[in-house]
Amino acid sequence: MKPRVGDESTGSWTAATRRQLERRLPWENLLPDRQPFYVGSWVYVFGVVTIAALAWVVLSGIVLVAFGPQWWHLSSVGRFFNSLHFWSVQVFFVFMVLHLWGQYFMASWREGRAPTWMIGVVTFAISIVAAFTGYLAQQNFAAQWIAMNAKDAINGTGIGGFFNVLNFGQMYGLHVMLFPIAIIALVFLHIVQVRMRGVVPPIGHEPEPAVRWDLRK
Amino acid sequence: MDQPAGYLHWGFVLISWPNLLLIGLMVVLFALALILPFPGHGSATNTAPTPPSPAGGGGKGNQA
Q1: DSSP-assigned beta bridge partners for residue A22
Q2: Is residue A185 within 8 Å of residue A191, measured between CB atoms?
Q3: pTM, whole model, 2 decimals?
């Protein structure tokens, strides 16, 4: 979109932000209806499956939070949602790692896509900590066993003072609030980055420089 | 299911059989993703690559 002629707010930071967003994130990029031919490969499906699994993780987690530990341990429906949460996390991690392998061997950080790669790496790291706090938030003997064993290890890293695995309230709060918000926000940014620069082409199929799609300028 | 999992102990490698099985399945799945054709697409060898347009679509694009 072109800057609005005669826009009196030209000098303001909101107008500058609006113009920057309009230039870097046109709707044709955010919601494309066509993709390059090389997207027609199963390797490009791994990321989408990861997002689908994340949706199930969040939805089943919301139900678990609403009804509480007694419900998810003792009622049949609660156990079902507990299992749904657990197995969707397994699918989430399996396909996130497959997505990581695919992007690693395609060197997906090429041509200005380093932020996309780095956001993915950070998302992966936070997801591991989120899963760990999930094991600690189960409210069963396994959670206690894991917490007791993890306490020494976490203390050994030097962060045990403010990341106390024996503090259920802290672990539960991190698991149901802070980490999910961080992961969802990072995944959103990851997708926006992909939309900004386009899906990475396979090595050897890069477009010619004269017609290269480059929104960095 | 209430018993601890069995472990493979080979030199310095120590991994439970379920974890090893899962990693093996992931490698197989990754290989299949590279080999199996995607529905509705011919092989890439007979499809000339065309540069993506600024809108993110290529000349030989497919409907997303």
Answers
A1: none
A2: no
A3: 0.81
